[in-house]
Each structure stands twice: as structure tokens, then as C-alpha cells.
Design a protein that fits this description.
Two copies of one chain form a homodimer. In chain A, the strands form two sheets. In chain A, strands 2-1-3-4-5-11 form a six-stranded parallel β-sheet, sandwiched between helices. In chain A, strands 7-6-8-9-10-12 form a six-stranded mixed β-sheet, with helices on both faces. By secondary structure, chain A is an alpha/beta fold. Chain A has 13 helices and twelve strands. In chain A, helix 1 crosses helix 3. The first copy, chain A, has three domains: about 55 residues, lambda repressor-like DNA-binding domains (434 Repressor (Amino-terminal Domain), Orthogonal Bundle); about 130 residues, Rossmann fold; about 140 residues, Response regulator (Rossmann fold, 3-Layer(aba) Sandwich). At the A-B interface, helix 4, strand 1, helix 5, strand 2 and helix 6 of A face helix 4, strand 1, helix 5, strand 2 and helix 6 of B. Chain A binds a DNA duplex through helix 2 and helix 4.
Chain lengths: ~350, ~350
DNA sequence: TTGTATGCGTTATCAG
DNA sequence: CTGATAACGCATACAA
């Protein structure tokens, strides 16, 4: 009986106390410890008071199971991989935080992967995650510009859920959870048009997340409201504060000049407010601005930003549910994976205002 | 020779192609595959052209090493655990993104853990991370209010680095990387006093990150500048936008009313700007405001926020360096772990202004 | 009720 | 130069 105390190894020393240690201390076999500690509650050919003893010793020795060994045996890793489009985006930070919390509530940890962190083109993004053997992967934000990632993921052996991916888009390879962009745009536009606005511009970011859907919804709304689109009223810029600076100047030079702008994200909207201020354009008196997402700072702009609020908590909760769920959608409907769509809600603050009567026409 | 194709297992199916598969396909032993694929470049009793063949087959079969098996053997997990105080904090989101990128550059992945995600008090935070066998853990933000976490971590067998932890604090249990808060406060205060301000208030959050150091530095500055502190000029509120609303009203009721406020974070500063606007107090004409951190939105407030800029990239890079570094500081100087302090820099925008001459005295 | 043996995918130490 | 073989920590079928 050669009981080597593995904890006394000099090199590595990466496992403090193993089942073997507990077993040795308790004078039982390692398998006994395993059975007791796993204790599938109910009909296990359980033990008597050895149980208590083993448990006490395990606690005393601060035993912690080694997840690598478990995973090696095929157990779930309880790991959720999150590929985030851009963690610097003020919208995604809180979203990831919410995701981490929702995941932990189900016992999962979150592994992070900023989509920009492709230091090596040869290293497919998926390698980092699939390699880690995550039980599931959550895509946060549109990854359309990473076709290889998408391709690798769809042929990989992991569940994938995409968030804010553009839920209406046909041919989605994964289940998606998102927001009803059309309804959000409708709320915002209704709000503006009911205030007399008809010259409404749109500022979005090209091929980013739900941006495209929002622009489409904007155009559809105009059509349904009988408003003829003005040439140049749609601007596409990077989804940054600086981005909207580039968008505002051309809009202000247009004639007729827009009386309102629908921004496809709060980042853009906040940039617009700032740019307007710098250019001496009064918000909302000369220009109404509506944002999208309702990030925390939307409440603190001057003036406070009217924005379409995103039910983040619900969205990430639904995503985790799908990600860790037992149901394997791939077996049911490969062509059209499930989509979950939540309804956004307009939060009206002070960046929008009905236009003055003389401005009509 | 019972070569079971492990890839054909029905259950689990969590490992697509193993070394065994590659070995079988190449007609060599599995250990040979291991040697070839690991290929410590240089003096390995290497093979001839079997190497090429094995490599080709491995590539063809899309072989990916199983990190669990490697970790089980004592190899580093290449995992960095990040315990974040609050991912919803607009400062930490980008910081984590930068951390993920810096880590990936060294081949590490980041595991996330929002410090608020303690669904179960019995479940120590550290369990989640240490259990995962991270090679190192990065604490992002002050965790003083989690004594158990600190204690578990310091006796655990992982390297720990603390970021924005309050670098000057004595008795730090871990190496820290942070910013010279005293220098930052000095920059900000110099800027204000050189504009004639002497009635300068301070708004911070109690026991949060470097907040305490900033308040101390503020008080020291006043003393060294011969400015007598005014009762009620120091306010402690939650580090949120709403928080600063609670701070502003009492300050405005004071007499003499402060002409400037130093906020210990941009979140607070942005909240102050908004609150001032709501109360009809003009920034910077009636009230100058300086923030701390220079988050992206600081450039987009109205007026633009003067703020003390944090060299985030440098900080996270240094943290990763320490976290993955070969040097084990614990063996050298247990009592005073290394601290890395970077210099912040004041970014002057439009939320500060020299006070009008008649306001003197 | 408990102990023994086996294998998960790797790496490392042996022989050949 | 290469092929067996033994761990790593855990779970489980099987034997006692």
C-alpha cells in the first residue's frame, strides 16, 4: 500500500488536497470518498457514519474537486464562453456583468474573449474557446464580420447562443436572444412624429449588431408614415463617440436640416449631444435626439437622453437558459433555430421635444 | 490491438479527435504524436519525416489538445481569473477588455467573476476560481469588503495581483498595480487652485478602490496649500450617477458654497454635471468639476469633463506580467509585495474654469 | 456497505 | 529514433 502524499510534491504543487489524501486520512478507499462527496441524494448504496467522518475530514482538509479531472471524464465543465464584440463598448460591459451573474446562478462560470483579441490571424477565435471545452458559447454582439468564427462554431460540438445578433435575420446559424428592434424604432419614431417631427435623420454603425435592423425599421417606418426619405439623412459611422461627430456636421449642412435624429445606440446619441453642443445647436430646442439601449449614462447626459431601453437582465437570463438547457435545438429544427425576442421600451427624457409650430412644413 | 475510435462514442462526444486518433491514422504510437506535436524546438530526439506525416494528419484531422488532460498533468492552465468588483461600472468594463487582450497576447484566457455574483454566502468566491485552477487571479477594484475572499486567496496556491486596490495602503497581501492617486489629486487641485479656486469640495465613495487614497490626498493638498477645510465639503455617496445627486444638494446649500468639486470618479463627476444642470447651476461658470479616470464618456459630456486620465493599458499589461511572471514574489518579500504605480495625467476640458475675479475672497 | 480496477487524454520515463 | 507504460484526479462498473 504505497500511499504517496501527492500534496508533498515539490514541482507544480497544483493540487493541494485530493481525494486520495482524504481517503488516506479517513482510512477508506478513494472511491468511497468519491461516492460520499458526490452523494447523489437518494438511492445510493450509501454508507453509515463513515460518511460523516469522511465529510468532516474533507472539510477539514479543505478538499476541492479538480474540475479538470472531472471534465476529462466527460463531466460538464460548467464553463460558459463569452465572445464579446468589444468590451470597451459601454453597453456590453454591464451586459457581460449581468451574464456572469445569471450564469453563476446556475453554477456556471464565464470565460471571456474579446473579439478584438485576435493577436494571430492563424489562431481561430474558436480555438481558444472550444479548446477550453466550454459547455456552451455565448456570442455577445454581431459577429458577422468573423465568418471563420461562425463557421468553426457551427461545426463545433458546442451549444451556441447569440445575443444582440439581429434576431430577424434569416439563416441564423444559432439560436438568438435579442430585442424587437422594429418595435423599438417604432416607439421612438412615434414619439418623434407625435411631436410634429417629420425631418428625422438616422445615425447608425455599419454592419454592427442590430444596427441594420434598426435602420431598416427606420426606413420602413418612414414609408408607412408617408414621409419621403431625404437624401443624406442616413449616416453610417463607427459606433463610437467620435463617430457621431463625423455624422453630425454633414447633417447640419443639409437643407432641409433634420429636426430630430434617431441614433442606433446610446454611444452615438451621446456623441451627437456633445457634438451639437460644441456646434452651438441646442438640444432639444433645435434638435431632438433619441438613443437606443438606455445605458446608465443615458440618464446623466445634459439634457437627459430619451432612449429605447433594453431588458438586459431578461435577455442574458434567456441566453443562459438556452446555453445550459438540456434541449438540443439542433436535433429539432436545424434550419430555423429558436429566437427569443424581448420588447424594448421608450424612456422619455429631455433630449426630445415637440417642434415649434413655425417649424412645420 | 484494440483501437477504439474514441470519436465515435455516442455519449458525451466531448473530444472530437485525440492523439490516439492521430496516432492510429499515422500508424505510430500515441507517445510519438505527443513528442512531435509538442516539439520543444531544438534538441529533441526528434524523428525524421514521420514528423511531417504526423503533423499533416493532425492538421487534417483538426486535432486540438485537451487542456484538461494537460492541466491534470500539471501543465499551466493558461487561465487568468478576474474578480471584478462590479462589471456594470463603466470604468471596469473597458479595463477588463484591455485585460483580456493583454492576457491573450501571452496566451492566457480570462475567466470572469463579478464580485456581486455571490448567490450563496456559503460559496466562497475563491472556490469558483481556485477550483478552476487558474494560474493566477487578478483582482479588479478594491475587495476590502470581502475579507473572506482575501483570506482564502492569500492562503490559496495561486498568484494574485490586485488592480486599483489602493496602492499606498500598508499591509497589502498581494502585489498591486495602480495609479499614483496622490499625484493625480495634485494635478487636479493644482489646476483648480491655479484658476483661483479655494473652496473646493470632494465627492467620493466610501471604502471603494482608490477612493480613500484620493480623499486623503485631497485633504493633504488642502493642508499643504494652506486652505482650511470647510465643514461638509467632503461627501461620501455610492459610486453611481444617482449617488452624486445626493451629494450635490447639500453642497449647494452650504455657505460658503464651493466653487469647484473634485469627484473621485468620472461616474460621480458625470452625475454631478447632470445634477447641476437640473438645478440650474452652470458648469463651469458657477461650478467647476473635475473627474477621475477619464472614461470614454468624459470626452462627451456637456461640457466636456476635465479628468485625471488612467493609463489603463499600461496597468493591465503590468498586471498580466506579474500574474504570469516566473518570479514568485512570495518567496522573496512576503511582508511587502511589489507595487507598481503609474502616473496619471490631467486632461483639461471644459468643465473647469478659472473663477471670476469678483468671486475671490 | 466498501475496496479494486479501469479509463478519460496527456506528458514523461523508461526500455528497445 | 520510437514504442510501451505509468501517472495526473476523479467516477464508476465490478468484485468482495
Amino acid at each position: 500500500m504505497t500511499v504517496r502524499r501527492s500534496s508533498s510534491r515539490v514541482t507544480g504543487e497544483h493540487q493541494l488536497v485530493t481525494m486520495k489524501d482524504v481517503a488516506a486520512a479517513a482510512g477508506v478507499a478513494q472511491s468511497t470518498v468519491s461516492r460520499i462527496l458526490n452523494d447523489a441524494p437518494g438511492r445510493i448504496p450509501v454508507s453509515d457514519k463513515t460518511r460523516e467522518r469522511v465529510r468532516a475530514i474533507a472539510r477539514e482538509l479543505q478538499y476541492r474537486p479538480n474540475p479538470n479531472a472531472r471534465a476529462l471524464r466527460g463531466a460538464p465543465t460548467m464553463l460558459l464562453g463569452a465572445v464579446v464584440r468589444d468590451l470597451a463598448d459601454p453597453f456590453f460591459g454591464p451586459a457581460i456583468g449581468a451574464l456572469a451573474i445569471a450564469a453563476k446562478e446556475r453554477g456556471y462560470s464565464v470565460m471571456l474573449c474579446d473579439a478584438r483579441a485576435k493577436t494571430n490571424e492563424a489562431l481561430a477565435l474558436t480555438a481558444v474557446l472550444e479548446e477550453r471545452q466550454c459547455d456552451a458559447i455565448v456570442l455577445v454582439g454581431d459577429m458577422r464580420d468573423e465568418p471563420r468564427l461562425i463557421e468553426d462554431l457551427r461545426r463545433a460540438n458546442v451549444r451556441v447562443v447569440a445575443l444582440w445578433y439581429g434576431s430577424q435575420r434569416p439563416g441564423r446559424p444559432f439560436p438568438t436572444v435579442g430585442v424587437d428592434n422594429r418595435a423599438g424604432v417604432r416607439c421612438a419614431m412615434d414619439h418623434l412624429t407625435s411631436g410634429g417631427h417629420r425631418r428625422i435623420a438616422f445615425v447608425g454603425a455599419a454592419s454592427f449588431g442590430d444596427m441594420e435592423e434598426r435602420r431598416t425599421a427606420y426606413e420602413e417606418y418612414l414609408a408607412s408614415a408617408g414621409i419621403v426619405p431625404v437624401n443624406g439623412y442616413v449616416r453610417h459611422v463607427p459606433n463610437t463617440i467620435r463617430g457621431s461627430e463625423f455624422a453630425l456636421s454633414p447633417l447640419l449642412r443639409l437643407s432641409p436640416r433634420p429636426t430630430a435624429i434617431l441614433a442606433a445606440s446610446d454611444t452615438l446619441a451621446i456623441g451627437l449631444i456633445h457634438a451639437a453642443s460644441v456646434r452651438g445647436v441646442a438640444v432639444p430646442d433645435q434638435l431632438s435626439i433619441v438613443g437606443f439601449d438606455d445605458i446608465p449614462f443615458a440618464a446623466a447626459t445634459v439634457p437627459g437622453l430619451t432612449s429605447v431601453k433594453m431588458p438586459i437582465a431578461k435577455i442574458v437570463a434567456a441566453a443562459v437558459e438556452i446555453a445550459v438547457g438540456e434541449v438540443d435545438w439542433r436535433s429539432s429544427d436545424v434550419e430555423d433555430p429558436p429566437r427569443v425576442v424581448f420588447q424594448p421600451k421608450l424612456i422619455v427624457r429631455d433630449s426630445t421635444k415637440a417642434i415649434a409650430p413655425e417649424a412645420y412644413g
